[in-house]
Amino acid sequence: MAGQKQERRPLVAGNWKMNGLKGSLSEITAIRDALSGPLAAVAADVLIAPPATVIASFAAAVAGTRLALGAQDCHAKPLGAHTGDISAEMLKDAGASAVIVGHSERRADHGETSAEVRAKAAAAHRAGLVAIVCIGETQGERAAGATLSVVSRQLKASLPKEINGANTVIAYEPVWAIGTGLIPTASDVEAVHAAIRQDLKDIAGAEGSSIRILYGGSVKPDNAATLLSVANVDGALVGGASLKASDFLAIVRAYEGK
Ligand code: PEP
Q1: 137 Cβ inside 6 Å of ligand 1
Q2: How far is the CA of 177 from the centre of ligand 1 (A)?
Q3: Which domain CATH number covers 106?
Q4: Fewest 10 Å CB contacts: which of 152, 184, 204, 222?
Q5: Considering only CA atoms, which of 228, 239, 214, 221 is closest in space to residue 105?
Q6: pLDDT for 147-206, tens place per residue?
Q7: Sign of the torsion formed by the C-alpha atoms of 135, 70, 190 and 202
Q8: Domain around 177
Q9: What secondary structure letter does DSSP report for 45?
Q10: What is the distance in A from the centroid of ligand 1 to the CA of 81?
Q11: Contact 153/162 with Cβ under 8 angstroms?
């Protein structure tokens, strides 16, 4: 509705990358228990994306709780002769409710193009998973003043048809901020998120206002409150600091009392 403030429930998502064994269940149960105990009043969605190998066993531990599970990648096809790959349907079957697609590490390590990311996001929707679509500029692109054009181009090329606030989340992750301890200034984050918001409205009309835009890249307990209070920052995608429940929960606490 014109002029109406769009409320978006924040999402704090953890990306464990290639870390985590069955024994890491204790971190999951600690997060789960905090969300039903001391953090019960925090109005944010919370998700951990562990390696695919442990999704099914962790799913049993979080069933019926506030802690959701996601995966870190999926194949675009539902099934077939693709040795070693995992489909979105398989992730859903294992207990995931979301999947990260287009993470910069996959774009760099596996040469994933935005067209492939778009197909993976469409696969996520086909399977009933939320697609968390990652975009972000490199250090060189930022230095060249190309941040907004790079991010806009990646966004438009990585999104499938019929995106909405329920099936899609964007994660803006400057590549140079991932795992480095470096972060953009709040005003830089604000400018990029505002541009993404405008693109989402151009692409999806009114739905563009309901799609959450996460910031990712060296979010830590000591910078979370600042980063997460920036306009159009609807949560965080957290890598390293999601591996320990205590650090991750300290980031979730940025939404305490909000
Ligand atoms: C990530 O890989 O998505 C990420 C944001 O990592 P980190 O928080 O460790 O920078």
Answers
A1: no
A2: 8
A3: 3.20.20.70
A4: 222
A5: 239
A6: 999 999 999 999 999 999 999 999 999 999 999 999 999 999 999 999 999 999 999 999
A7: positive
A8: 2-251
A9: E
A10: 32
A11: no
- Cα separation of 237 and 160, whole Å? 21
Question: Which structure tokens are listed for 98?
Answer: 């979301």
Kindly give the number of the ligand 1 atom that is closest to the alpha carbon of 241: 8
Number of domains observed in the structure of the chain: 1
Q: How is residue 6 annotated by DSSP?
A: P
The predicted model scores a pTM of: 0.97
Structure tokens at 37: 């105990």
Residue 13 in any domain: the answer is: yes
Any domain includes 256: no
Task: Give the active site residues.
Answer: 103, 173
Query: What is the spatial distance between Cα 48 and Cα 16, in angstroms, rounded to a whole number?
Result: 7
Residue to substitute in 48, 173, 242 for testing ligand 1 pocket (most ligand atoms within 8 angstroms of CB) = 173
Answer whether residue 257 is part of any domain.
Answer: no
Position 114 in a domain: yes
